[in-house]
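FORM 7B - TANDEM STRUCTURE REPORT

SECTION 1: FIRST PROTEIN
SEQUENCE AND TOKENS:
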Amino acid sequence: MTTVEELCSNNPIMVDAAEPAYRAAAMMKLHRIHHLPVVADGCVVGILSARDLIGVVPEISNRKGKPARPTKTLDASQDIHVGEICSSTLVSAPSNIGIHRAAWLMVRHNIRSLPLVRDDRIVGILTDTDLLRVCLLGSQRIKGIESSEKLHHRPVADYMSSRPCKIEPTASVLHAWMLMRELEVQHLAVVRHDECVVGIVSDNDIYYALREPQPNADSIDAHSRVPAISLSDVMTHKVISVGKYAKLSLAAEKMLSKDIAALLVIDYGLEGIITRTDLLKAIVTMD
């Protein structure tokens, strides 16, 4: 049998609070991760997410709702440090945590990675990928989840959201981001007025759009070009989908193999959306 601690990365990638934010962004992109534990003087003081990095772009930071934290653009020439923008609330768990409890914590706090702690030190980071691979694809055996075989064959329809949030491809990136904030979602289905699905956009797509020049942008300065960037420039056009009667294991396999966090559910039209969080909820309900 395998323990939960053995499933996770035991060489977690962390970032110092004094590091410039743009370097943390580069680390995330290089390692294809979405969260970084933040350390200062050898102690973990918070966690940095892609959403925190979006928050330092003025056009997004200064609007209604949450942060007006630092209002400088995320650029190598700017003096924004990780410690200024990271969340000081770090959700962690003991290294001997059970599989259901770990999945529950991720769902409860809407996180995709869970630092595991022993003797006040992070000894590993358990990710949603680790849990999905074991519980839904059966890559390893772990005590307490022998019943996961039943879960493999459950249909996507049992766990998907049947009312996906939609936006038109002509909308701006700024509009998409504000809609995500308002609806508290991380993905939007991009749908034409005739209900034809033409793409999907995530909060990470928006973040990287603000980091890199786009074809229709007149300026490479994020502050000035945010309102002008069209959603069609940054969304994923080649939609990876799944049918609502497909097995959960197929949904997990597609997400893991393509390194994506959500699938649109399409049969004869847009039926819904299923995310990694939905799959974690399924793990929580395992007998």
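SECTION 2: SECOND PROTEIN
SEQUENCE AND TOKENS:
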Amino acid sequence: MNFWNILYPIEWVVSYVFYYAHEFLTFIGFSKGSGPAWPLSVILLVVIIRLIIFPLFLRQMHSMKKMQAIQPQIQAIQKKYKNKKDNESKQAMGKETMALYQKEGVNPAGSCLPMLLQMPIFLSLYRTFSSIKDIASGNREAVGPITNQVAHDIENSFLFGTHLHLSDNWGAAPDLPSKIVIGGLIAFMCVVMFINMRLISSKNTPQATKDSSQYNMTRSMMYIQPVIYIFTGIAFPVVILIYWCTTNLWNLGQGLFQLRFHPTPGSDAWDEKIAREKKKDIEKLNEIKETDPETYAEINKPDERKKQRQQPKKNKKKKG
């Protein structure tokens, strides 16, 4: 069975969300047929899908937070058995690691499962956008409401007042302004990706983890991945570039949300969160002091419990 046939039901649902996002935009005043409503529908579709799967992101975030919090303990176990290659030592290391997972309530696959559940949706989004040109030319059958005529309207929707079709890529761009638009989309996509990766790696990683080889690999990918997308981006049609720009911008927003409200313990973002909470408590206490002195006095009332005085022990001299 073809892989894309397995994803077809999800692609079918995505196509309907895409179509009705366009219907909503035309309802509020955008023109029907070819026009700016279709590029905006791509953005709206991504936002709708990401809102739907946002609970999965929260679950993934909590699992990653737990895993990162116990990384120093995992590294201590690995260091303990670093130079021991026998089977008994390997089994002992595995048992200690699993015992740590159970003690801390961590599922090693907990951070991966939500991502695996999201992948079919992302692939279906990509497939829907990539198929527009084929549906418009008759090389592929309609997908849900995306018929030949609808796909033709999408393909012939110009972007930013240029002669650039949504199905065009860098090589098919008809003129210099169109190439500038594509270059701008690629640059925006890569810059936002880099900023997001840098924020997460620098501010949401515990200090103990920063000393590991895994962190160094992550930092390397922070520079390599955007460069890869520069070269692959010129082959993407405009509709895919809009999708990636919107997705990366959303990921940046999610990253900022995570840093603000759910940082990893031991990270710089965690320290900043603790400092904000302490400052907020002090401000609240000062407000109580001004508005309700009696309550403030009660809160700051010294502990009046009587402390038992410990009698000093006398050293008995041993008789010689």
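SECTION 3: OBSERVATIONS ON SECOND PROTEIN
Residues 159-300 form one domain.
The chain has a mean pLDDT of 82.

SECTION 4: SIGNATURE
Preparer initials: ____
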